[in-house]
TrEMBL record:
Lineage: Bacteria, Pseudomonadati, Bacteroidota, Flavobacteriia, Flavobacteriales
Gene3D superfamilies referenced in this protein's UniProt entry, alphabetically: Dihydrodipicolinate Reductase, domain 2, NAD(P)-binding Rossmann-like Domain
Domain GFO/IDH/MocA-like oxidoreductase, residue spans: 156-216
Protein's organism: Flavobacterium supellecticarium
Family annotation (InterPro entries): Gfo/Idh/MocA-like_OxRdtase_N, Gfo/Idh/MocA_Oxidoreductases, GFO_IDH_MocA-like_dom, NAD(P)-bd_dom_sf
Pfam families cross-referenced by the UniProt entry: GFO_IDH_MocA, GFO_IDH_MocA_C3
SUPFAM superfamilies: Glyceraldehyde-3-phosphate dehydrogenase-like, C-terminal domain (SSF55347), NAD(P)-binding Rossmann-fold domains (SSF51735)
Protein name: Gfo/Idh/MocA family oxidoreductase
Segments forming domain Gfo/Idh/MocA-like oxidoreductase N-terminal: 2-118
Single GO term (MF): nucleotide binding
Amino acid sequence: MLKVGVLGAGHLGKIHLRLLNQSEKYELVGFYDPNTDNAEKVAQEFGYQKFDSITALIQAVDVVDIVTPTLSHFDCAKEAIENGKHIFLEKPIANTVDEAREIIALATKHQVKGQVGHVERFNPAFKAVKDKIENPMFIETHRLAEFNPRGTDVPVVLDLMIHDIDAILSVVQSKVKNISASGVSVISDSPDIANARIEFENGCVANVTSSRISMKSMRKARFFQKDAYISVDYLDKICEVVKMKDAPEVPGDFDMILQNAEGIKKQIYYDNPEVEQNNAILDELETFADAITNNTTPIVTLEDGTEALRVAHQIIDCFKK
C-alpha cells in the first residue's frame, strides 16, 4: 500500500481524507491544514493524524494529495516533488500556465508521477460513452450551479468551466485554433457567468456555458458527430446515444425512419451503454495509485491539466478585450 498524506482539510479535503482512509490501495498517514482550529477539529472528529507542517507530512508519505487553494498548488507541489513524492493535484493544476509547466519539468527531473483532479473524466456517465465519441464536430455544454461563496475568489471559468474544457480536450483530437468568449460579474469581483466558443483546427466547435448564480444545478454535455448524437448528464449520471444507419428495405413496424430531400432513408436507433455507478473521486485517486504501482501513465496527466488551464486562461483573456 502507498502511504498518502493530504494537504488541506477544507470541504473537498475532508472528502479526500475519508475516501483515502477507506481505500485498500492507500494507507492514510495524516493531513496538514494551516488553519490550526480547523485542523484540530478534523483530527478530533475523525481521528486522522494531524501534522504541524507541510514538510513533516511530505517526509512521512509516498504520495501527496494536494487539496489546497489554487494559489498554493505550485509551492506545495514543488516541495513534494523535490522530496521525491508523487503528487495528486486538485484542479486547476496551478494558478498560472508557467507554474503548471514548471511542475511538469520538476516531475520529469525527479521522476515522479502526477495526476490532476479533473473528476468528470471518472463520472460514470462520461466513462460509459467516451469510447463512442468519435470525431465530434459540434459540442455543447452547460454547467450551472447555485451560488456558493466558496470558490468565488476565481472566475467561474476556473471554478466550473474547466471541468468541461478538460472533458472536451480529451475527446477532440485536434489543436485549438480560435477562442471567443464573454463573461459577466454579477455578485463577485470576477465573472460569475461565462460563455466560450472554442474552435479547433479540424473544424470542431465547442460552445461552453457556465454559471454559478443559477436557480438550479445542471451539468450536461452534448456531442454531435457523423451519424450519432451523444448526451451526458454528469449530475444525474445518465447518458444517451442516438445513432443513424441506412434504413432497411422493409422497415419494421416500430422502426424510426427519416428521409431527406434526396430520398435517402436513415433509421434512428438507440445504443445506450450501461452506466456502472461509482464514486468518481475514489476512482481518480485509486487509478493514480495503479499508475504509480504499475508504472503506467495516469489517466489525467499533468500535461492534460496544463492544457485545460491554458485554454481556460485564453477564455479569461477574452473578457479583458
